[in-house]
Design a protein that fits this description.
20 helices; alpha/beta; about 475 residues; globular; N-(1-d-carboxylethyl)-l-norvaline Dehydrogenase, domain 2; 2 domains; ten-stranded mixed β-sheet; Rossmann fold
Amino acid sequence: MKTHESSVFPIEGIEFSTGVEQVVRGGRHLFPYLIEAFAGIRQIGFIGWGSQGPAQAQNLRDSLEVAESDIVVKVGLQEGSKSLDKARGAGFTEEDGTLGEMFEVIRSSDLVILLISDGAQTKLYKEIFAAMKPGATLGLSHGFLYGHLQSIGEDFPDNINVIMMAPKGMGASVRQLYLQGKEVNGAGINSSVAVHQDVSGLATDYALGWAVGTGSPATFFTTLEKEVISDLTGERSMLLGGLWGLVEARFDELEPIWGFRPSFLEGVQGITSTVSRLISQYGLLGFYKKLDEALKPAFELGYRRAYDPAFNLIAEIRNEVSSWREVADVVSATEALKVTPMSNVEASSMWRVARENDLYGKEVEMTELLAETAGMYIAGVMAQMEVLRAFGHSTSEVVNEALIEGIDSLNPFMNRSGVGRMVDGCSTTARLGTRKWGPKFQEAFRSSSSYNDLADSAWEVFLENPLHGDIEICFGFRPSVALVVD
């Protein structure tokens, strides 16, 4: 990956097992530098009010206010949008010039941050490109549009900057941690940035200013291509689809033997409560080492039986994504939603029964059953990291996309209210991918009652993997407060 330079923000070199990567540490003390970072920008237009729009628009507006900047943050929505009242409720209004029609805002903005759904982007990109001022900057929070353009042989206009700032968590987390972080130097959600096209020579500072202003405690560098591949692979795997498939399979395995309550607590709930909390404290290898000696064999069994099927399925997913077939499938599936709505990820009765019996949000005692479940979950996470690393993704991207985003940003929502709140709080692309691949993970984990010599080798690699040191480094860049989910 190329070396990046900024005239505004200090960029550090961080030594991982795979080499040196660059990172920018955020914080409220950097807000005054936003004026310099956004040199030449008079208006920033946030287009859309979906998962990321409310959080990013409000965070950047609040940060620029701290900086005493006169840059206008304006929200652009389609006429008659159901989100207009929500934007007004967040303080964006037509009267003060901070709320307007989508294309009017695009035409008048120097930085256009495009946060409408992936499906809408693939339909409207030509009109959006045509409306942008020459020399303006297009900001994306996901590389999906890049993937779509690649799949149809098109590209971005050559007279605009194209940058990305991708928070490693859902929009609700981005806003909630920013608000919590007002007392602890701007805690928020880590992000990655990409500078895809720089016609002005200022694109890197714009991308970093966007990240710092949104509250990112640590900002790493990537590319549009790497981000969209790791993101789509991750949410279809252990961040969303793989986790859903695992707990469905695990509950089905345990319930006939142990009954409902222990099977749900030790096969489902325990992952997002006790296991996630301990991983967040000690890392993956540290979690294993903290187990009582009597529980370690159960963990090892879970790891050995789950690693191979998880690795094979995740490798298949990454292949589908990197070939852009998955992108085309999302575009098609999004169009089909006009006729057929999404299925319910909480269709199995266990979610309803758990809610009726007030089992969400519970800390679960570490038992042999939960230790085995934890081994299966961690095997899936390690498999996801190994697949991404094998295809050249940066270590920071691998750890953030496969582990930190899950335990610190997504799992707390499932822990509090069930898998539906976690999955359906994400983008349409993520929700579709979860529903497509989750059942395949369920079948893969359901069939993993035994293991082979490859799994034995994977277990030995787990114990000595240099990724554990990389995880410890990445953990040091996380927000200084834990997410509180209402």
